[in-house]
Automatic annotation (TrEMBL):
The gene is rsmG. CDD domains: AdoMet_MTases (cd02440). SUPFAM superfamilies: S-adenosyl-L-methionine-dependent methyltransferases. It comes from Victivallis lenta. This is Ribosomal RNA small subunit methyltransferase G. The keyword Cytoplasm applies.
């Protein structure tokens, strides 16, 4: 394996890169085993998994380094197989992850995987964000809302706009440059009367020529 996940993790500010890499391998094993009876992801080959799922998930900390050390409550919408929620919880003990998925089997998998990995900083909610958005225990509770490979940004934001804390909360969404080019004009229209502005980070290359990534993020207007 030419790609060193531990080295990349260190560059992202992960406090225990070697331990994180070992736990990420354990996560892959859990997913491979579960894939025999449930389709979680087709990306299971060790290096491809490390790059396209794990490194991609922790790249957010390079762009937003406060995530490496500050106590931060994050909601991960459409958590799927646990990317980025499980990976971020493994990487940064200071984070408190709420993994949300509308598919019960996926939510149950993330909950089971978190227990097998010994994670104490993950909770799982089975539900749709547009419905959870109205619940008192969810409204204005999160510092960050994120989502990866889920839906267009305007849909994510409008479905979950009340998840974030008033004034200080923000959305940080994983996107490709092409997706961002499509989402930003739609966000400007959808949010033109709302108290939020949207921005894009500079694109960057994932390791091993695995493609480009950037983040769309919100700030108060």
């Amino acid at each position: 394996m030419s790609f060193s996940l531990a080295s990349y993790a260190a560059s992202c500010g992960v406090p225990d890169p070697e331990g994180f890499a070992a736990l990420s391998r354990q996560l892959r094993e859990i997913i491979v085993e579960t894939n025999r009876t449930m389709n979680l992801t087709r990306i299971t080959e060790p290096e491809e998994f490390a790059v396209k799922h794990v490194a991609d998930s922790i790249a957010i900390a390079r762009e937003f380094p406060f995530l490496t050390s500050e106590y931060t409550k994050i909601a991960d919408i459409g958590c799927g197989a646990g990317f980025p929620s499980l990976v971020l919880a493994l990487a940064f003990p200071n984070l408190r992850l709420t993994a949300i998925d509308s598919t019960g089997k996926k939510a149950a998998f993330v909950e089971r995987a978190a227990k097998e990995l010994g994670l104490k900083n993950v909770r799982v909610i089975h539900g749709r964000s547009c419905e959870l958005n109205r619940r008192p225990e969810i409204r204005h509770q999160f510092d960050v809302v994120t989502a990866r490979a889920v839906a267009p940004a305007p849909v994510i934001y409008l479905d979950a706009c009340d998840f974030i804390k008033r004034k200080s909360g923000r959305f940080i969404l994983y996107k490709t440059p092409q997706q961002a080019a499509e989402d930003l004009p739609a966000l400007e229209i959808a949010c033109r009367k709302l108290p939020v502005l949207w921005h894009a980070t500079e694109p960057f290359e994932l390791p091993e020529n695995a493609g480009q990534r950037l983040f769309l993020y919100s700030t108060p207007r």
